[in-house]
Amino acid sequence: MIGLISATAAGAAARDRLASAWPTRTRVYEGPVREAVGHAFAECDQLVCFLATGAVVRLIAPLLQDKASDPGVVCVDEAQRHAVSLIGGHGGGANELALAVSEVLPCAPVVTTATDAVDIPGLDTLGWPVEGAVAAVTRAALDGSPVTLYADAVWPLPALSPNVAPDPASGSAAVDAGTDAAGRAADDMIEAVAAAPVPVGGVAAAMAATAAHTVLADAAVGGAQAGPAVLRVTDLLVEPGAREAVLRPPSLVVGVGASRGVSVDEVLGLIEAALADAGLSARSVAALATVDAKADEAGIVEAAARLGVPLRTYAAAELAAVEVPNPSGAPLAAVGTPSVAEAAALVGGGELLVSKRKSAPEGRPAMATCAVVRKQPRGRLAVVGLGPGARDLLTPRARAEIRRASVLVGLDQYVDQIRDLLRPGTRVLESGLGAEEERARTAVAEARAGHAVALIGSGDAGVYAMASPALAEASDDIDVVGVPGVTAALAAAAILGAPLGHDHVSISLSDLHTPWEVIERRVRAAAEADIVVTFYNPRSRGRDWQLPKALSILAEHREPSTPVGVVRNASRPDGTSRLTTLAGIDPTTVDMMTVVVVGNTAAREIAGRMVTPRGYRWQTEGS
């Protein structure tokens, strides 16, 4: 909930305008300002104060506790010129709130958080738990100092600062220690961990490497903070060094089985012990999983709530089909599957780190079982439509996906359109005309490698653009997100008037990949069906006869006076448009940057605009 506080009539007017725009998200606090701020601070997640920043600072100063729990606070001045993110920029969401307020009120957002100012993602904005020397590592990233990245796997994170990079020497378990002694200590630790009993398979090497990283990083710091800062992405329990931050990826799924009436304390105690014994962080648990029959088991439901993760449930038949190392007759008789904990954790694959183990309550039989599986990261491919070219027709979702990507793939001229939106450190893979399939394969390969990829195209990426070749390459081992864009047909139609008011079709006249016989058959079908036609790729230097042929086919079924719209570079500064007729269009004025819209038999020119009525019966004036 967002608390709204004002002290003057002007502030109240702005407050009420925001409340009207967000009726379900806001609560107006009236009365003495000090009391209103106090109540809102205690009851709301965020505050918007229509007061001077100095006044708000004095009012909230006695209320501040810590950045993890304090609400985000935004100040809006009397003249509604600025929305200032005052406290809780990241953790409290005040930066985003300031931007949102500026979309409702005529004010400019003021965000002074250092990472936002230089356009790099803050470690506390990635949506993952982060611990250790977050401020020190962030400071190093902001200063351009080396930050060595160690990750157990590639995750689809946004582009980090360019100076955050894997260690070029080894890429695995080495931070430049600076001394032979530190190197020997790390070697000794690796040998010791490798020789020690390990509770689960597949973890020993990673634990040894992580421990070695910590020793070497601490040695590199040496009290004088020499050497690089370290950013580690791991689900293993590690003690961060003096200049080390640890990001916890959502890599672990805990399968849980339980008897009816199990307590939340028994379930949580079992999970916490299993994770600790395996050297795994509870902050990397992405979900609890169980059988459908236990979907309402209070102890399991509450355990998921306390861990702050979703509870996933599966049908017994689905779990019974999962091969597990420790099947049992008891769950088969009780819920219809020989395994609950292991099978639920293993649905969809992954590495079984902790085999089924039982709780160990004193003086009574165990009522809970659990197993832990590490899931492989899934890369992310966003197929993004940039629209027809005008920046204000680039959708907010497209902009967000471009900025979320660590890898951008696209045609060089399209990359140039949005290069200023890329975060520093974004890897750009661009190529020229005619390399569509290569770009599609490249984007999918980068996503399969675990990266967050944005594949861009003009208009809508699914209309004569990159979505089709990309999805033809992609399999179910990556996540795919489609981001719609304003198509050339829609942009041209808006310029011409309302030519698409009834049934319409888009046809590409390029026969580079589609035989002309197929294209001609489609044009004839549209002509006979009396459908408005938008021609893409109408004419190029090497293809100069296809457009006249298509127009002649339409002319067999439509009057010479049928309106035709010709729009070049729709929505761009150098864009042009003209309205002509089927008999009057000059194909030589058309090129690949042009869209041609041919009306149906009901289409008309009205006041210089092309209009297709919503019904087939044209309504005359006064009817």
Structural description of this entry:
With 623 residues, the chain is of the alpha/beta class. It folds into five domains: 2-112, 3-Layer(aba) Sandwich (Rossmann fold), CATH 3.40.50; 124-247, no CATH class; 252-374, Nucleotidyltransferase, domain 5, CATH 3.30.420; 380-486, Tetrapyrrole methylase, N-terminal domain (Cobalt-precorrin-4 Transmethylase, domain 1, 3-Layer(aba) Sandwich); 489-611, Methyltransferase, Cobalt-precorrin-4 Transmethylase, Domain 2 (2-Layer Sandwich). The chain is built from 20 helices and 29 strands. The chain has a six-stranded mixed β-sheet, with helices on both faces. Strands 7-11-10-8-9 form a five-stranded mixed β-sheet, sandwiched between helices. The longest helix has 18 residues, at 204-221. The chain is globular, with a radius of gyration of 31 Å.
